[in-house]
Design goal:
The protein is α+β, with helices and mostly antiparallel strands and 729 residues long. It is built from 14 helices and 39 strands.
Length: 729
């Protein structure tokens, strides 16, 4: 496993445990994509580049160069010179023309993996990862483009990133810089994406490719409410366990483009990167631009293996938090309990009841600062509201700690209210187009984080609060999209840099936060799940999955999220009923079972719920902590999906050594005159025996996987059960 170069064949080979990736060079030095798929036993050859077919390479037939470039399976295509498919790099020179032609110059093979300055990126020790750097150059522009491939052999992951360096004397403009491209022949491939909206994020969508370009993207300055920086191409027979899957995920939290293009010759081009809309980066002589990282995986064993590849990779090579595998506190958040109507005594009342129930942390949400009694003021004025907290924040935190709970707090550091002291002092700190009245959303504007003084101020406000009291947890929120894209600081030639510079500002703030407060438990949030992406996971081990905590809605949301991301990253709470968004009533046990598939907590007024429900909380907390290590480290299997029009939903987490498995079954809709349902477990040892916890029943591992376990039929909608199987011999 690892990276090799075969000079006689002009062929680069990258191997993981189950996959092989081949890159070949044409006689002129064009870098071609040869193969990505099952691990090859043979050495490999470059015949798949079809250079012996018309229109031949330009060295053989110069007159057909454009035809060649428009067919050649290019590893990183540049625009303007004859490849009319989607380009990855568009460069405008001083004359005003767009054109770039990249040819191979050199390569390096490194043990380990360099970081990406200013950007979130995967990491690994020298024995875990190797990196191939292909150096290409446009001779006319004297532009150097370095294609980086990092091979994580044990997780079947290859990451890709690109650095563009201006080695010439012209002032160049980068109008598009994607991070990855994958060309392949079409085999009736289907496109699988995650789509949705606020309160219904990341629903799974799948459909056949058509000729032309099919895209998921965001130009909102955030990554993932409506569409998601993820794309998979799957063969028609692909299921959880069968078929082939090619998948990409983008380690970035802002504007993105993920696209599959079916071309005239039956080829598919798969691309991913920063969206080119409202992007234009000045590249002056001597300057370089670093594109974010894309994560690639291939599975010949269906979507389930793709999922487990991503899960293992993100747990082992992206999330840095010390809380990754530690016991995480069960928290109660006061948002749906009180909204803005709270003070010290109300929070202490919730804390006292929460402590009795075994809950371990109180999180104070929006409304504690400035004059914030509704969502129409005070963002940017991060000082404690003295009318609500007459004795100050430290007094409140100490009293919560005396009760026996840790304390957490909500911030929205990236925003500014028009009705705030900060805006009155610095109206130019808001993103806006000069002369135009900016659009408000949730009665707020967005701070211009492309400016150092704004980043320093916003971060300083957060740090000052955290230094003022023993705060163990921060929920970092971002509640609106970006528009009116203009900066008072950037010049006319640089306004196209604002969206990316904004994200760099966010990343700088969060890097400073986790560096200065290394033990802090950080949970990212963006109006619910609008920034649930790998970029955020680099800074926080968990992200608020959705503002919708209705258990039935969460089934689809969490299924789509878990398709890529580990369960331990999904912020999930037991909500109030009727649910505040959809008005549905679901059993308290079901709400808990669904929330246990994430970072368990409560989002309700514990002082007002029924005594019968309050009495169940201690057992739920104990149950969550008992299963939490399995949820954090185990393998996830999707056994059945309500999204597939089944009346039930079912998933499993199995220990990697096959010692135990937890199955969650949710009967969404009861059906009349139905018998028990068989669910087929995965990840067990065939020759072992497993006891079902709470019963005297013992089953063979092969029985549970191949014969199935029978879930008894039960009356009632929205009812759920947990089944814990433990290996006994």
């Amino acid at each position: 496993m690892g990276i090799t170069y075969m000079d006689a064949k002009k062929l680069f080979r990258m191997d993981t445990r189950r996959t092989t990736y081949l890159i070949g060079l044409s006689p002129e030095g064009y870098v071609g994509h040869v193969y990505y798929g099952r691990r090859l036993k043979s050495e490999g050859n470059s015949y798949l580049l079809r250079m012996d077919e018309r229109p031949f390479t330009p060295s053989v037939l110069e007159r057909e160069k454009a035809s060649f470039l428009d067919f050649f399976p290019t590893e990183y295509p540049a625009g303007g010179v004859g490849d009319y498919r989607e380009s990855c790099l568009d460069v405008r020179c001083e004359s005003g023309s767009i054109g770039c032609e990249l040819q191979f110059e050199d390569y390096r093979i490194l043990r380990g993996k360099p970081g990406l300055p200013g950007l979130p990126a995967s990491f690994g020790q020298e024995g875990e990862v190797e990196t191939l750097e292909l150096v290409c150059r446009d001779a006319l522009l004297n532009l150097k483009v370095t294609l980086s491939y990092s091979v994580f052999a044990d997780t079947d992951i290859i990451t890709r990133s690109v650095q563009v360096e201006n080695c010439g004397e012209q002032h160049l403009k980068l109008e598009k810089v994607y991070s990855a491209c994958l060309d392949m022949d079409n085999r009736d491939l289907e496109m699988l994406t995650l789509v949705g909206s606020w309160a219904r994020e990341r629903h799974i969508q799948r459909g056949g490719l058509r000729f032309g370009k099919q895209t998921v993207s965001s130009v909102k300055g955030e990554s993932s409410h409506q569409e998601h920086p993820f794309l998979a191409l799957v063969t028609p027979e692909a299921t959880q366990e069968t078929g082939e899957v090619y998948a990409m995920n983008f380690v970035y939290s802002g504007n993105f483009m993920a696209q599959a293009e079916l071309t005239q010759f039956g080829q598919v081009r798969m691309t991913m990167g920063i969206h080119s809309d409202q992007f234009c980066w000045n590249l002056r002589p001597g300057e370089s631009f670093q594109a974010p990282e894309a994560v690639l995986t291939y599975s010949a064993e269906g979507l389930g293996l793709m999922t487990r590849n991503f899960h293992d990779f993100y747990r082992g090579h992206l999330i840095r938090s010390p809380h990754q595998y530690a016991k995480r506190p069960v928290l109660i958040n006061n948002w749906e309990a009180t909204y803005f109507d709270f003070d010290s005594e109300k929070l202490l009342e919730i804390a006292r009841e929460a402590k009795k129930a075994g809950i371990e942390m109180l999180v104070m949400d929006d409304g504690w600062f400035g004059k914030r009694n509704l969502d129409d003021s005070s963002l940017g004025d991060w000082t404690v509201n003295e009318e609500k907290f007459t004795s100050g924040l430290l007094d409140l935190v100490e009293k919560v700690n005396e009760i026996g709970l840790q304390f957490g707090i909500w911030f929205e550091p990236e925003m500014i209210s028009p009705d705030s002291d900060l805006y009155r002092a610095h109206p130019d700190w808001a993103i806006r187009i000069a002369g135009r009245t900016p659009s408000q959303s949730r009665a707020q504007y967005v701070l211009d984080l492309s400016r150092k003084e704004v980043v320093d101020y916003a971060y300083g406000c957060v740090a000052d609060i955290l230094h003022s009291a023993p705060i163990a947890y921060v929920k970092w929120d971002m509640n609106r999209q970006l528009c009116d894209i203009g900066s008072a600081c950037l010049g006319r030639e640089s306004q196209g840099e604002l969206m990316h510079r904004y994200m760099l500002g966010v990343y700088e703030m969060q890097e400073r936060l986790v560096t200065e407060f290394p033990e802090l438990l950080l949970e990212n949030c963006s109006g619910g799940g609008a920034r649930f992406d790998p970029g955020m996971l680099y800074y926080s081990p968990q992200i608020w999955c959705s503002d919708n905590v209705d258990a039935m809605e969460r089934l689809r949301i969490q299924e789509g999220t878990a398709l890529i991301y580990p369960l331990s990253t999904m912020g999930a709470h037991v909500g109030d009923c009727p649910n505040h968004i959809v008005g549905r009533n679901t059993p308290f046990d079901t709400r808990a079972h669904v929330a246990m598939a994430g970072t368990f907590g409560y989002e309700l007024d514990i002082t007002k719920i029924a005594e019968e429900e309050r009495a169940k909380i201690p057992a739920q907390v104990e149950e969550y902590h008992r299963y939490q290590p399995l949820m954090q480290r185990g393998d996830y299997y999707r056994l059945a999906s309500w999204s597939d029009r089944k009346p039930y939903d079912c998933w499993e987490v199995a220990a990697k050594d096959g010692s135990e498995a937890l199955v969650t079954f949710v009967q969404v809709l009861a059906e009349p005159n139905m018998h028990s349902r068989a669910v087929f477990l995965r990840g067990l040892q065939e020759d072992a025996e497993y006891a079902l916890e709470g019963t005297e029943n013992v089953y063979g591992g092969d029985e549970l996987m191949y014969c199935g376990y029978l879930v008894p039929s039960k009356q009632g909608d929205f009812v759920s059960r947990l089944y814990h199987f433990v290996r006994v011999r």
